[in-house]
Amino acid sequence: MIDTARIAAFAHDARLDDAPPEVVAFAGRLLLDTLGALLGGLRYPQVTAFGDSLRAAEPAGPRDLPFGRLVTLGTAATWLDADSGGSFHPQGHRLPPVPTAHPAPHSLPVLLHAAAGGLDDRRLLEIFLVANEVGMRFGVGTTLRPGLHPHGIHGPIASAVATALLHDLSSALTATSVELAGSVPLAATLAVPMHGGTVRNLWTGLGAYYGAAAAGRAADGVAGSATVLSQLLDGLVTTGLSTSELTGGLGERWRLADSYLKPYACARWIHPALDAFRLAVAGAPERGGLAAIEVDTFAFAASLSAVRVASDLHARFSVPVSLATYALDGELAAAGFLPDRLARSEVGELAALVRLREEPAYTAALPHERPTTVTVRWRDGSAETASVRNARGNPSDPLPDDEVAAKFRRNAQDVLTPATADAVVAGLLDSAAGGHTLQAVATEVLGRFCP
């Protein structure tokens, strides 16, 4: 049985000053990175149009929770596929190699909404750390059924914990919030985003709202059930429930720090190919232009072979299109797959040069490694080859702060003023700084995109 009372007690007792400095520093980087992904998603016309339609028919929610705002922000947070996921799972043989959980984009909409009310950065970071530690533990303490996608399953629990702490609910009501939030999982399939279904992003938006609403329902007296939650997570939606992973070492061992940060705005399976391509062309002249890009990779990446894509999400699940865009732009961030950029003829021409093959030895290295080799052939007949065993951004090969900051600025461009972007970078990369930079972000963003 899941001990939700113990989880709630941890959430109420944990303080930023009690966590190891390196964990607090990572939480600041993760918050900055997730915020950048969210702001970059707001640049997409589909997201703004969706937000406008929700505002036109705003339904009432418990305790006046802003349904349209939370759903729009949550949808935006995963639109780029640039958000973090958990890279650790105690069952190391687990395949396919999907992240354990994505709690951060589910909880951030709640915190950004609260920031508009004046809550300071330090308290918001504290709640972010605690809520997402709980969400991540539900990810590592369970195993998704084959073919399921993690969005909307564990993330609503993080959103519920964040909402309960923001509203000063009792520990008992926070436990109920966890039970209610985890009892409405969105058991949707991984095949949807792999084929370009942008509804995938809505799962995060709904998860953000469902989690917040669960805390509101708990405060209004609705009862939860740890038994129902345990049954859902130990056979129905996920399997292999480990209560020791959920509660063992709470406040001492921080699973949140096992997250990766993505350097590129596309599916994680594609990242090793982009890293290898980057190494292959580093410092090399173009030698008359590209003639071919040969990619030898593991099975799951090799299956992402679409050259003609139906949506920007489909492009984010395409090795040829992601490689072509990176080759043209030297980056893969928010702007890369905006409608006019995705439609560039050069993208299609370069994508057609990609030759994608599964290397059985690389598939056999899963899930601990995701090896990939890229050979770049130039029109003058020369070639360069590079290999990687894993993508950058994992805990064993973390992104440096300057790259996290640069990624944030690229994604937030045209959404934040440069002064606000600089302030939030400085504030979140220095977790001791405090201040109200997230309030400044909320002031600039919420009124414009989701009043």
TrEMBL record:
Coiled-coil spans in chain: none
Top-level taxon of origin: Bacteria
GO MF term (any one): lyase activity
Domain (MmgE/PrpD C-terminal) ranges: 264-422
Span of domain MmgE/PrpD N-terminal: 6-230
A Pfam family of this chain: MmgE_PrpD_C
SUPFAM superfamilies per record: 2-methylcitrate dehydratase PrpD
Family affiliation: Belongs to the PrpD family.
The protein's name: 2-methylcitrate dehydratase PrpD
